[in-house]
Design goal:
34% helix; 8 helices; alpha+beta; seven-stranded antiparallel sheet
């Protein structure tokens, strides 16, 4: 009986031992089973990304939007003669236009022009963009761009005064995409007739650090609507550049500016001069490499000398009254002649 019990005990121990040994391989097989799961899980992010692209196109489009400022920045750095396409609206319809970039540092501007419809003609004092349908020696539809050293308000006033002799003009201030605020003068109606002129002009006077830029669109009345739309798109791209040209006041400039200043501070002076009852005069009395002196002899008999700095245009004055004061006396007047050169 004892032997039988012992035999059963040994058999039970042997079975437990075999069962314990069988568990170890089971545990070892679990680890390799997990590795394939990790490997098959790896492609999941790619699948999720694909699903995100398919289901969320708006987010993908937003991600590409920052590229646009880069394109804009590249456009502002175009080189002279570089060509590209753009889209404009004519008569309510989109039209693809082939532009060429113009960069003229001598005249101080850059701009894009429609090279399929206009021919660029460069001169020392201006750039012209003439319709390819016109006679280049006598064009009717073209854009002309010039530089001027005068104050842009005074230049605009002078241009408007000249055009007003023939046209009923319209003057307004508007914003250009490239150059910002400017003065636009439209001359389209014959003076006092309420009838359109055969030759129309639209003048844009654009302020610049060294004066202004003047862009004038000339059109013949029959073709004016289409040409003016195309030219206005071109003008809207104009940007002012530094010319790199040093300004210096000449004797004629100083004389003209001092005279304009005197008329401004004394509104009655022009009438007195025109009446001719009193002696009034302006003359350059002295000049050197640094300074110009303009002598103004007033109708009161006073002698006012304006000392003009050739480089800066800064001006101050002295006054001498013969028989009353023994020498020139500095006055409180001061201005800059560049503000009066138009």
């Amino acid at each position: 009986m004892k032997k039988t019990l012992l035999s059963w005990a040994l058999l039970a121990a042997l079975m437990l031992s075999l069962a314990g040994c069988g568990l170890a391989p089971a545990a070892e097989t679990k680890a390799p089973a997990e590795e394939p799961q990790a490997e098959t899980a790896a492609p999941a992010p790619a699948e999720d990304a694909g699903q995100a692209e398919a289901s969320e196109p708006a987010e993908t489009a937003e991600a590409s939007e920052p590229i646009e400022p880069t394109v804009t920045a590249a456009e502002t750095a175009r080189q002279d003669g570089e060509r590209f396409e753009s889209v404009i609206i004519l008569e309510g319809m989109e039209e693809t236009v082939h532009y060429e970039h113009v960069r003229n540092t001598a005249l101080g501007f850059e701009m894009d022009f429609d090279y399929e419809n206009f021919i660029r003609k460069s001169d020392a004092d201006c750039e012209r963009f003439i319709s390819d349908l016109d006679d280049l020696t006598d064009p009717e539809n073209y854009l002309e761009v010039r530089a001027d050293t005068g104050n842009y308000n005074l230049v605009a006033d002078a241009i408007n005064a000249e055009l007003s002799a023939e046209y009923d003009t319209t003057v307004e201030t508007l914003e250009l995409d490239g150059a910002g605020s400017c003065i636009r003068i439209e001359a389209a109606v014959l003076k006092g007739t309420n009838q359109m002129a055969d030759e129309l002009q639209e003048v844009y006077v654009i302020p610049a650090p060294d004066g202004c830029r003047i862009a004038t669109a000339y059109t013949f009345v029959v073709d004016s609507e289409g040409f003016l739309h195309r030219l206005s798109y071109m003008i809207n791209t104009l940007t002012v550049l530094e010319r790199g040209v040093e300004r210096e006041v000449s004797e004629d400039m100083a004389l003209t500016a001092v005279k304009a200043y005197c008329f401004e501070v004394n509104p009655d002076l022009e009438g007195i001069v025109n009446a001719g009852e009193h002696t009034v005069s302006w003359a350059v009395s002295d000049d050197d490499a640094r300074q110009i002196v303009v002598l103004y002899t007033s109708y009161t008999g006073a002698e006012v000398r304006y000392y003009v700095d050739r480089a800066t245009g800064d001006t101050y004055s002295t006054e001498l009254v013969p028989g009353v004061t023994a020498e020139e006396q500095r006055t409180d007047e001061s201005f800059n002649v560049w503000d009066y050169i138009g």
